[in-house]
Design a protein that fits this description.
Number of strands: 18
Distance between the termini: 30 Å
Keywords: Hydrolase
EC number: 3.4.19.12
Strand content: 35-45%
Shape: globular
Number of helices: 4
CATH superfamily: Cysteine proteinases
Enzyme class: hydrolase
GO molecular function, one term: cysteine-type deubiquitinase activity
CATH topology: Cathepsin B, Chain A
Number of domains: 1
Helix content: under 10%
Radius of gyration: 20 Å
Catalytic activity: Thiol-dependent hydrolysis of ester, thioester, amide, peptide and isopeptide bonds formed by the C-terminal Gly of ubiquitin (a 76-residue protein attached to proteins as an intracellular targeting signal)
CATH class: Alpha Beta
CATH architecture: Alpha-Beta Complex
Order of helices and strands: EHEEEEEHEEEEEEEHEEEEHE
């Protein structure tokens, strides 16, 4: 991927001083190319509120909304101890397998918080072509992915447990694994879980006419 980084002046500085700093080469946008092992997807802040029956409402977000981080134009601010940066990311090559890590956990000096937002995603036919620049699109014949594994975190950050959903490629059936217990699961039930890590397989030429699970 390409990573574009732009240093920001300190927010407490006067406007004139900020304007002057932005003219310096140190504050101009820089681009580097980097390989990646997985893509971290950031969840929006979860505003938990109650409905008329005093039941907690769990917020939801579409997968494509959090994938927009990698469209080459979406900017996000990153803060360090001393400096602030704006970064944007652009995918330049799509691998046979993609790993998504949905950032549910935030750690501070005192405790770990978990974001319970549900990510709405299809099981098959996730096309990432629109996240590639035009010149990169020309080099990619296949840009569609199908989910093959989904790791779920249940419960509190410090006391939770994990479940794994795995596609059996030979039969097209989904199974849920927890410890030594293996059970069937319907694909539509997978999308209701608090997905944490996902593995997607690129659909190749001989698979385009096959129907997914």
């Amino acid at each position: 991927m390409r990573i574009f980084t732009k240093k920001l002046p300190h927010p407490d500085l006067p406007a004139e001083e900020k304007a002057q700093l932005l003219q310096n080469s140190e504050y101009q946008e820089r681009m580097v190319e980097s390989t990646f092992l997985y893509l971290t997807l950031d969840l929006p802040t979860a505003p938990l509120y109650k409905d008329e029956k005093e039941q907690l409402i769990i917020p939801q977000v579409p997968l494509f909304s959090i994938l927009a981080k990698f469209n080459g134009s979406t900017e996000k601010e990153y803060k360090t101890y001393k400096e602030n940066f704006l970064k944007r990311f652009q995918l330049t090559r799509l691998p046979p397998y993609l790993i998504f890590c949905i950032k549910r956990f935030t750690k501070n000096n005192f405790f770990v918080e978990k974001n319970p937002t549900i990510v709405n995603f299809p099981i098959t036919n996730v096309d990432l072509r629109e996240y590639l620049s035009e010149e990169v699109q020309a080099a990619h014949t296949h840009t569609t992915y199908d989910l093959i594994a989904n790791i779920v975190h249940d419960g509190k950050p410090s006391e939770g447990s994990y479940r794994i959903h795995v596609l059996h490629h030979g039969t097209g059936k989904w199974y849920e694994l927890q410890d030594l217990q293996v059970t069937d699961i319907l694909p539509q039930m997978i999308t209701l879980s608090e997905a944490y890590i996902q593995i997607w397989k690129r659909r190749e030429e001989d698979e385009t006419n096959q129907q997914g699970a």
